[in-house]
Amino acid sequence: MSTPSNAPEASIRELAAGSLRFASMRARQLSTYWLTLVASGLGYGLMYLATIGQGLGRHLENLSGMEFSAFVGPGLLVGSCFVTAAGYGTWTVSDGLWGRSSFRLALCAPMTPGVILAGETIAVVARIMVQASLFVVAGLILGVWRGWSQFWLVALAGLVGAAGFLPATAYSVAGKRSPGELALVDRAVVLPMFLLAGVFAPVDALPRAVEWVAWISPVWHGTEIWRGAMRGDGGLQEALHASYFVVVLFAGGFAARLKFTRALLK
Amino acid sequence: MREFVTGTAAVASRGIRSDGRKNFQSAFAGFLEPFYYLIALGVGLSPFANSFGEASYKQYVAVGLVAVSAMNGALFVCLNPAFARLHYAGIYATIVAGPIGAWQIVLGEVGAGVVRSAVYVAGLVSCAVAVGAVSSPAWILGGFLLSLWIATVFGCLGLAAAFSARSPQHMAVVRLGLMPLILCSGAYFPIDSLPWALRVFAEWSPLYHSVELLRAGTAGMLPHLAYLFALGVCAALWARWRLGIALLS
Q1: Residues from B in contact with A at Cβ < 8 Å
Q2: Which residue from A149, A123, A138 is spatially nearest to A45, judged by alpha carbons?
Q3: Residue B62: what pLDDT?
Q4: Rounded distance between C-alpha atoms, residue B226 and residue B232, angstroms
Q5: pTM for this one?
Q6: Closest Cα partner for B134 from B56, B213, B199?
Q7: Taking residues B208-221, what's their average pLDDT?
Q8: Around Cβ A5, how many Cβ atoms within 10 Å?
């Protein structure tokens, strides 16, 4: 039996075409419930911005010189995208390996594990960017921000999504995870990286003991990049936050590819 | 009567034991979310909050989160797991083959939910004490007892929904509804600050009445208690009726 790892070296172009083909297959699967995705994406944004943003905001002073809804909005957007992306890395990737085995089946086509992983990542990032766009639209509807100036948040959310998806994938393919384990990772690792990452209040207002959660979380680094851009004083700090993403994407991508290849060809 | 009670206790103890063993990870995972909100909103935003009267915002949120936690504990036993036990695991069909009826299943499952709630609430209240978010020690006992009552009502509501759902998609819709329920409950801020449509929804929401029950002094409790009681009784009757249909026809 020949495994794809023995196949002759494919060109970059073939690799790219393969991963796009896999991504478009995933996109078509997702598009069967597009209405649910649109309604929940928009509803989530409207609900959070109208309640936590504007409702609670009425009882709070301005933070960092902004109205609370404008302060918290981008963090909610980026954080919710991070949770969704990490959910794909845990639940969906586990299902693709050990449940419905869509990854194993894709191996029957001329695809390598690396190509499949790249395709899955492209699909998840695209899905996250759709969710982020809907959130930005929700913010426009409620008047949290105006005009098109905030649409670059969509790209930022894509970046944070990838930084959530790849490490989560590396974890969930490194061994067979039970639903209980995945639920625990969801709640004990992913959720604090959203809720305790300086989204609602500046990190220095949180207890010292949980500060480090923000430091390791893509949500905090993403939110800080946005806040820096809003203040207009981009510089060394923003460069550091950006370099965090370079490290996490490379390390996460490398680990995910290694573990994913092992899991698929075992 | 005695058989009825032992049957109910048997169902409840089955649920509790399954929490302690194979479901421990999911059971523990369910506890964590209100705790993060206590830190992120309560502790984080307390210095910036200006209109919560004498109580600090930290204390205000802690009370709301006790209600949320009581609800979560009951629902994480009586919603999705109950649906799975009815339709996939076939546990209820097996139980009714013995001398245990539908009423005992309903009450027993609610009992298991209340026990899990009690653990969640106790954990959350300890955390609240640790971060200084509890106003008076006397409140702890009263709040704990009231949260058991809240858990009972949500246990019945959860079972009514779980036994009415005919497909996993129905359950997904119910789960989706939990987010607005929590956000519009007055747990994080008074519901007068909500837009009009959400406020109307909030006024009928069982979680809003639970939060208000915990916030009200002894004098103001009665309307909330009565509303929750009526809702709980209706939900229990409905759950029993739907379970009968699901099991016996």
Answers
A1: 22-26, 28-30, 32-33, 36-37, 39-41, 43-45, 47-52, 57, 131, 176, 179-180, 183-184, 188-190, 193-195, 198
A2: A138
A3: 94
A4: 10
A5: 0.91
A6: B56
A7: 90
A8: 11
